[in-house]
Design goal:
With about 400 residues, this protein is mainly alpha-helical. The chain folds into two domains: about 1-35 and about 85-245, no CATH class; about 300-400, no CATH class. The chain has 17 helices and two strands. It has helices spanning about 1-35, 45, 85-105, 105-110, 120-140, 150-165, 175-210, 215-230, 230-240, 245-250, 255-275, 280-300, 300-315, 320-330, 355-360, 365-375, 385-400; strands at about 50-60, 60-70. The chain has a two-stranded antiparallel ribbon. Helix 1 (about 1-35) packs antiparallel against helix 3 and helix 7 (about 175-210) packs antiparallel against helix 8 (about 215-230). The longest helix has about 35 residues, at about 175-210. The mean pLDDT is about 85.
């Protein structure tokens, strides 16, 4: 019953997190698009303080949108605030992180081959690392760097690279990616909570008092809103990354993440330029090309060569179906069974079942990829699969092919 409740909690928090994330990222995409597509309004609108306007048609209706340079003469009765999309995404993400990587620290957070951490020590280190990264970001946002986009991005990405490399020495591979997502998500939500909403409150307060709002509040809010926008594509990748073991399980998985982070920001830059009427196909093409360069560089060439060498070295070794099945049965079926015996799972992860030799043969190539090539399975190697056993499975699969 405990494992069932764990999985229900996992489903609930992940579903909530994805829905909230879609709402937040969608709002970010829309408002940056909207701001970049505003046109110069007619004089009578300018006289009312309108800086730009936009006409659009959607779902059978025609919409007129106007942006004030500072604010209207009088606040409307109903003013929509966009903040809970950010807060609910961060809250649900924190709950998901706590459930999987703190409650399930022994499996998802700790990697004994990297560092011998106790559960509470690992959790404290995790929270400390995220807090340190967030404080660094807040610190540089208070410096003059924030007014120099390229310099700010260079410093921030340099710190993120060092930070990611550092935590890779302590946490499991999947946890490293999730922690980068947690840090960036915290910075993004912090921008909303600490900068955007307070700035907007100051603007609303000034208008309510019959004063002209200080335009600086709007500029500050817009700066960090742009930061959030450029982080959206990298965050989406991190949310999907645990489905792609060849990234996080790579020897230089931390570097692959940083490279894809930069690629995501660069591709986002193309769309932000395009929304302003500046079309630079070279930005998009170079971004896509860079993605494939990263994919080629991260391909398991060395591992594949090693696998061929192992197969050649074991040409005289006969690995029977029964020998392979014994290894799979003792190392894999604890989780990947119709009725798992692992306390962590009520049902087989991803619905992947290995209850007999026929199923093992059917999925031999996938077993080879995850247990021999990327070596991210068994999860956290909790069944203690040895290198010799991985090699024998590799020989078995290669000879079967």
């Amino acid at each position: 019953m405990e494992s069932y409740l764990f999985e229900v909690g996992h489903l609930l928090f992940r579903y909530f997190h994805i829905v909230a994330g879609i709402a937040w990222i969608g709002a970010s995409f829309y408002f940056v698009w909207l701001d970049n597509n505003l046109t110069n309004p007619p004089q009578w609108k300018k006289d009312k303080g309108i800086q730009g306007d936009l006409w659009a048609i959607h779902a059978g209706g025609i919409y007129e949108v106007a942006k004030y340079k500072a604010g209207p003469e009088k606040m409307p009765e109903h003013l929509h605030w966009f903040k809970w999309e950010a807060y609910s995404t961060w809250i649900s993400g924190t709950l998901l992180l706590s459930l999987l990587y703190y409650v399930g620290a022994d499996v998802y957070l700790i990697d004994p081959s990297k560092a011998a951490l106790e559960q509470m020590s690992a959790i404290a280190l995790s929270i400390g690392c995220i807090a340190t990264g967030y404080l660094f970001y807040r610190l540089i946002c208070k410096t003059s760097l924030i007014n120099h986009g390229l310099a700010f991005a260079t410093i921030a990405l340099s710190f993120l690279t060092l930070w990611t490399w550092g935590i890779d020495h302590f946490f499991a591979d999947r946890a490293v990616y999730i922690h980068v997502g947690a840090l960036i998500g915290t910075c993004m939500a912090g921008n909303v909570f600490n900068v955007i909403v307070p700035s907007q409150k100051q603007m609303v307060k000034a208008i309510a008092e019959g004063k002209q709002p200080d335009p600086q509040f709007g500029l500050i809010a817009k700066q960090v809103s742009i930061h959030n926008n450029y982080a959206t594509l990298p965050i989406l990748f991190i949310m999907l990354s645990n489905h792609f073991a060849f990234t996080y399980a790579h020897e230089f998985g931390w570097l692959i993440l940083i490279a894809l982070f930069i690629v995501g920001m660069w591709i986002r830059h193309f769309f932000n330029l395009k929304n302003r009427g500046i079309v630079k196909p070279g930005v998009l093409v170079s971004g896509i090309a860079a993605f494939f360069v990263v994919m080629a560089a991260s391909a398991p060439w060395h591992t594949l060569q090693s696998g061929k060498a192992i197969a050649q070295a074991h040409q005289q070794v006969e690995v029977s179906d029964q020998q392979a099945w014994q290894i799979i049965q003792s190392r894999c079926t604890e989780c990947h069974s119709q009725n798992p015996t692992s306390a962590m799972f009520k049902s087989p992860p991803a619905g992947f079942v290995l209850d007999n030799l026929a199923q093992a043969k059917q999925f031999a190539s996938l077993i080879n990829t995850r247990a021999v090539v990327t070596k991210d399975m068994p999860l956290a190697n909790m069944t203690k699969m040895t290198e010799d056993e991985r090699a024998l499975i590799g020989v078995w699969v290669n000879k079967a092919e």
